[in-house]
Amino acid sequence: MRSLYISMVSEFYKSRKTLAFWAAILLPAIICSLIAFGFYHDAEKILKLNYPPMALWGRYSGNALGVMGMLILPFYVIFMAFSINNIEHKNDTWKTLFAQPLNRFSIYAAKYLYAVLTIFICLFLFAALTVAFGHLLEFLIPRYHFSAYNPVPILCKYYAKIFLSSLGILSLQFVFSLLWSDFLKPMGIGFVGVIMGIITANVGWKYAYFIPYSHPTLALRITSTAKKAGNPLDFPVFTSEIISSLIYATLLFIIGYIIVSKKSIK
Amino acid sequence: MSSYAIETVDLNFKFGNQVVVKDLSLQVPKGSIYGFLGPNGAGKTTTIKILLNLLKSPTDSVFVFGKEINHNRIAILKKVGALVEQPAIYGHLTGKENLINRCILLGISKTKANEMLQLVDLTAAANKKTKEYSLGMKQRLGIALALISDPELLLLDEPTNGLDPNGIIEIRNLMVELATKYQKTILVSSHLLAEIERVATHVGIINKGSLLFQGTISALQQLNKPILEIVVNDGPGAAAFLRGNGFEVLANDESVVSVPFTSPGDSGKINTILIQQGFIVTALYQQKKDLEDLFLEITKNN
Ligand SMILES: Nc1ncnc2c1ncn2[C@@H]1O[C@H](COP(=O)(O)OP(=O)(O)OP(=O)(O)O)[C@@H](O)[C@H]1O
Ligand SMILES: [Mg+2]
Prior knowledge:
- The structure holds two protein chains of two kinds.
- Chain A is mainly alpha-helical.
- Chain A has one domain.
- In chain A, about 80% of the residues lie in helices and about 0% in strands.
- Chain A is globular.
- Chain A starts with a helix and ends with a helix.
- Chain B has two domains: about 5-220, P-loop containing nucleotide triphosphate hydrolases (Rossmann fold), CATH 3.40.50.300; about 225-290, Alpha-Beta Plaits.
- In chain B, the strands form four sheets. In chain B, strands 8-9-10-5-11-12 form a six-stranded mixed sheet, sandwiched between helices.
- The two termini of chain B are about 30 Å apart.
- The model of chain B has no long low-confidence stretch (mean pLDDT about 90).
- The structure holds adenosine-5'-triphosphate (ATP) and magnesium ion.
- Adenosine-5'-triphosphate binds next to helix 1 of chain B.
- Magnesium ion (MG) binds next to helix 1 of chain B.
- Chain A: This is ABC transporter permease.
- Chain A: Keywords: Membrane, Transmembrane, Transmembrane helix.
- Chain A: It comes from Pedobacter rhizosphaerae.
- Chain B: This is ABC-2 type transport system ATP-binding protein.
């Protein structure tokens, strides 16, 4: 456990000046503020539509969710998986990393958990900033009745679902980036994968949930249909694509460790 | 067994089909500076990686401080500091941050970072990104990283690679100080015997994965036979004359004849008969072959 903790601290220390880490903070900050700005700028138009508070939240937060879940999140996850391993490939530091008096599994798990944690932070900030900017909007334009509905439970549920749906991609890309030290292979496969995932998810292919890249889109799509039925909070989290994502994540995490432990550091 | 810091027992290692280390039995005594010598591709780096358990060795073939490496990996690595090939440093971090990162991993006080920067003379460049370092500065940082945990055993793979003459001398002095003052054991690899013969107490010479010589530096020097060089007016004539008188002649050119040195008396005798024969001997001296030549000879013959 100490090994794992130490390795995690080191991962954060090493990466705190990298784009991948800052993107976890900048992405939600930029996207959420852009959306909030849009709502501020177009306040008259939106207020004319006379949304009840819940629908207003839906309209407002749906923007971030849609953009994020469908496109940005998968690409960010791919970039994150690449970046966390590339930092060692690029500097030829695998050999020193594994020559430290630390358990091999901890070193590996710390890298993986770091990636998971950063994505969690990113999504958490999305949710938190969505809420915060909503209230800020009301403060600036009191006719926005954001405070009449508490969106926290539903946002948490949505973002939790998106988070879980991204773990499959993360694990797959993590293994690719572990195996290949170049930029093109993992990023190329990831890019094609995401496009494929979006297409297969949107055409409603029966087995789309077998493809990790389609999980975020699937997770969003199903929930958006469920939303229309009665209580908006009433949608299942552990749908087939989420379960599939978790199974992928578990298997690939183990495979990744087998690769690391078998791999002699050359 | 435990008087050795490192002991390998008939160690073999393959990359695919290529045998890279062959029946290697290293014995590195505690407190020694062990010069690990060999030409390019001899297997030095590979051996060092095996000693760090980066490459898997067969069970019961590698012992560090008397402990089998595969079963005591973490305990052993706690006592080892290493610099393998190019120093492994994070280019986007400064020199100091690289050291602090290592302190985090080792769970030691971060004040060590400043100490090490001072030791390798990098204090002025502490806050510069290491990707902007020169080759020698990177090497110094690599050495600092190897030393930061105050390890009992240091594995240095060509540590003076890229250093300026001053830097080379500093590293040499540092190695001697670490071994004599602090009883550290140092295994240092090199292509050049000359580079380490002044500091090493022990030498192992490896070529194509096999150990060709292992012993103290003086044992190596004893292998090295002195030569008598005679400067005369007619080299070929003198060589022929000496051969005719039952002396072994190693080589000659127009003006210099080399014969094995046996004793001062024999040297005098050679001088006398040459003069008696009418040769003009202008100089006669004992020449010790460079250890470097000996090294080349040892590695060439195999
Ligand atoms: N990752 C690898 N895969 C396959 N073969 C390798 C690998 N690394 C080294 N070798 C081979 O092992 C042999 C020994 O290499 P090694 O790097 O140990 O030599 P060295 O003594 O350190 O040489 P140098 O003085 O050039 O650093 C070489 O023939 C090399 O081609
Ligand atoms: Mg080498």
